[in-house]
Design goal:
The structure holds two protein chains of two kinds. Helices cover 14% and strands 31% of the residues of chain A. Chain A has helices spanning 36-45, 192-200, 267-273, 289-305, and strands at residues 3-9, 12-16, 54-58, 62-66, 70-76, 81-83, 86-88, 94-96, 101-104, 112-117, 151-153, 163-164, 177-183, 202-209, 213-217, 231-232, 237-239, 247-249, 256-257, 261-265, 281-287, 309-310. Chain B is α+β, with helices and mostly antiparallel strands. The radius of gyration of chain B is 19 Å and the shape is elongated. Classes of the chains: A alpha+beta, B alpha+beta. At the A-B interface, strand 16, strand 19, strand 20 and helix 4 of A face strand 1, strand 3 and strand 4 of B.
Chain lengths: 311, 225
C-alpha cells in the first residue's frame, strides 16, 4: 500500500473531508475543515474532488515521509513547508517522491493549514464522511488526531502540470476581522441596548477556543432569559450563557443545546475567526440573511473565476 | 407554528413552548413532510422537543423560497395527532452499586430506593430529542416525585450506559463522558454503536420502557461494572 508515514503528528493534525452531512438526527455533528476556503483551495490546486480527504494542521509541527510519488500542497496559515530540508512555497503544488521528508513548521500567521495530496488520502468513510471528530471518536483513522507512526494511504499520481494561487488572491490572516452575524433564534431575548453593546464592542479570543466553539471575552451581554427548551444549533451560532460571554459554535459543536443565541456568524467569517489565536481582537457586524446569501454567492463566484497560475 | 431565521442557511420552526407529546408528534410529522418537500435543497434537520432546525443550501435556494415551501408543506398538518411510535424496552440494573446518586435522590424525595426504581421503571417515556452526543436520547417525562436538579458539580466521567435523571428528563449515557445528571443505574444496551446497523436502538418519537434486571443478568447481557 502506498501513502505517507507520520513521523511527528504535530500539535493537532486531523483527517478531514468537507464534513459529515445529514447525520444530525443520530446526534452526530458535522466536523470538517474550520477554514473551508483554505481547504477548498488545497484540493482545487491539485485538481481534486472538492470533498477529497486532506489534513487540517493546527499550529504546526507535522513531519511525514512520502512512500509514493505524488503531489502535495499546503494552504491556509503561514506554516513553513520544507521538502527534504528545502523551503517550499505555500499555496503551490509540489511534486514529492517516495522517501521524501515533508516538514511543516509552526505558524507565523493564522492557526490552521491544510495539506492535500493528489486524489486525496484514501481513508474509509464513517457515516458518509472521513471527517475526524475526536469528541465523538468518529472519522479519521480511529476517531483520533494523528499519532506518530500512523500511515495515511494515498495513491501514486502520474506526472502532471502544477499550479499555484497567485499571492494577490491569498487571504491575509493578520488583517483585522469584523465578523458578520445574521441575527436570529432568541434575538428577541436581547434588548436593543444589549444588542448595541454586542455589536459595538471589541471581544478577544480566549484560550478556550477549539473545534467545538470559540469562547470570546469582552463586555458582558445579558439576555432576558436563562435558558430555553433544548433546540438544534447551526454552524456559527453565537450562544450566550449565564456569564454573558459569547461562544461561537463551530464544526464540532453539540447538535442541540439550551442556551439563548443572539444569531449566527456566516461561514465565510467563522473561517476567518478560526485562523485567530487566543488574544486576538474581533468585532461583530449585523447583516441581513439576504446580504449573507449575496456574500455567499459572490464568494462562490469569486472562487470559480479565480484561475490558479500554471508553473 | 412560528418560523424564524437561525442563520445564513438555517430556519427554525417552533411548534410549542414546552415538553408535550402532541407537540413532539408535530415535530415528527414536519420532519417527514419536509424531507420530501425540500429534498433538493435540504442539508440537514435537527428535531428537538418543540422545534425543528432546517438547514438548507443557500446556493440552491433563498430563505424566502424555503419559507414558502415549508408553509405549503405543513399547511395541512393536523392538530394533536400523536403517533404511537415503537415501544422499545431497555434493561436497567438499578442499584446503589450501579447508580451512585440513587440513595441521595431517594432521600431527597422521601422515598425508599425500591420506590424510586418502581416509579422510574413503571413510566413510559417518549424520545423527544437526540443530540448533545451521538446516541444521547432525551427521554421524558419522569414522575414529578423523582425529578431531581443537575448536580452542582458535574462528574468528570460518567460511565457508558448510565441511566440518569435531570429535572424531569431521563437518559442513558451512550459513551463515557462528563455529565451532571443524577445516576440511578446502568443499562447494558449500547445506545450508540458505530459498527451496528442501525447505530441506535431508538429514534425520536419512539416510546421507551425500562425493564429492571438483576446484577447477574446485567453482566450476562454484557454490562460492565
Amino acid at each position: 500500500m502506498s501513502g505517507f508515514k507520520v513521523l511527528q503528528p504535530g500539535l493537532l493534525t486531523l483527517i478531514q473531508d468537507a464534513g459529515r452531512i445529514g447525520q444530525h438526527r443520530i446526534g452526530l455533528t458535522t466536523g470538517g475543515p474550520l477554514d473551508s476556503n483554505a481547504f477548498d483551495w488545497a484540493n482545487r490546486l491539485l485538481g481534486n474532488n472538492a470533498n477529497a480527504t486532506a489534513l487540517e494542521v493546527s499550529i504546526g509541527g507535522l513531519v511525514m515521509e512520502a512512500q509514493c510519488d505524488t503531489y502535495i500542497v499546503l494552504t491556509g496559515a503561514a506554516m513553513p513547508l520544507k521538502i527534504n530540508g528545502t523551503e517550499q512555497e505555500g499555496w503551490c503544488a509540489h511534486k514529492v517522491q517516495a522517501g521524501d521528508r515533508i516538514d511543516i513548521g509552526f505558524s507565523t500567521a493564522g492557526a490552521r493549514a491544510y495539506l492535500a495530496v493528489s486524489g486525496g488520502f484514501t481513508v474509509a468513510k464513517s457515516f458518509t464522511s472521513t471527517a475526524t471528530v475526536t469528541r465523538e471518536g468518529i472519522g479519521g483513522l480511529s476517531g483520533e488526531k494523528l499519532q506518530q507512526g500512523d500511515f495515511l494511504p494515498a495513491e501514486a499520481a502520474p506526472d502532471q502540470q502544477v499550479y499555484r494561487l497567485p499571492e494577490a488572491f491569498r487571504p491575509d490572516y493578520t488583517a483585522a476581522v469584523s465578523l458578520r452575524v445574521v441575527t436570529g433564534y432568541q434575538q428577541d431575548a436581547f434588548s436593543d441596548v444589549q444588542k448595541r453593546l454586542f455589536f459595538s464592542s471589541e471581544y478577544k479570543v480566549t484560550d478556550r477556543a477549539d473545534r467545538m466553539g470559540y469562547r470570546l471575552e469582552g463586555p458582558q451581554i445579558t439576555p432576558s432569559i436563562d435558558g430555553i427548551l433544548s433546540e438544534g444549533i447551526c454552524h456559527g451560532a453565537i450562544q450566550v450563557p449565564a456569564d454573558g460571554q459569547p461562544i461561537v459554535l463551530l464544526n464540532d459543536r453539540q447538535t442541540i443545546g439550551g442556551y439563548p443565541k443572539i444569531g449566527s456568524m456566516i461561514a465565510m467569517d467563522t473561517a476567518r475567526l478560526t485562523q485567530l489565536l487566543p488574544g486576538s481582537a474581533v468585532s461583530f457586524e449585523e447583516i441581513s440573511i439576504d446580504a449573507a446569501h449575496n456574500l455567499r454567492c459572490l464568494e462562490q463566484a469569486r472562487f470559480a473565476r479565480t484561475e490558479p497560475e500554471a508553473l | 407554528m412560528k418560523l424564524e431565521i437561525a442563520g445564513e442557511n438555517a430556519l427554525i420552526l417552533y411548534f410549542g413552548e414546552k415538553t408535550d407529546p402532541a407537540v413532539s408528534a408535530k415535530v415528527q410529522q414536519a420532519v417527514d413532510a419536509l424531507e420530501t418537500a425540500l429534498s433538493d435543497v435540504l442539508i440537514d434537520m435537527v428535531p428537538s422537543y418543540a422545534s425543528l432546525l432546517v438547514i438548507f443550501n443557500p446556493l440552491a435556494c433563498d430563505h424566502l423560497e424555503v419559507r414558502r415551501r415549508i408553509r405549503t408543506a405543513l399547511s395541512d398538518q393536523t392538530e394533536g395527532e400523536t403517533s404511537e411510535g415503537r415501544l422499545v424496552s431497555l434493561p436497567a440494573y438499578y442499584s446503589t452499586e450501579s447508580g451512585p446518586d440513587l440513595e441521595d435522590l431517594a432521600n431527597r424525595a422521601n422515598l425508599s430506593v425500591e420506590e424510586v426504581i418502581k416509579i422510574h421503571s413503571e413510566m413510559e417515556y417518549r424520545v423527544y430529542a437526540i443530540g448533545f452526543a451521538p446516541g444521547f436520547a432525551y427521554l421524558g417525562e419522569v414522575d414529578e416525585r423523582i425529578a431531581a436538579p443537575r448536580l452542582s458539580t458535574p462528574r468528570q466521567k460518567v460511565p457508558r450506559g448510565a441511566v440518569a435523571i435531570a429535572d424531569r428528563q431521563t437518559a442513558v449515557y451512550p459513551a463515557v463522558s462528563p455529565g451532571g445528571w443524577n445516576l440511578i443505574g446502568l443499562c447494558p444496551t449500547r445506545m450508540f454503536n458505530p459498527e451496528a446497523t442501525p447505530s441506535m436502538p431508538v429514534q425520536v418519537g419512539d416510546r421507551i420502557r425500562f425493564q429492571p434486571i438483576e446484577r447477574d443478568e446485567f453482566l450476562s447481557l454484557g454490562g460492565e461494572l
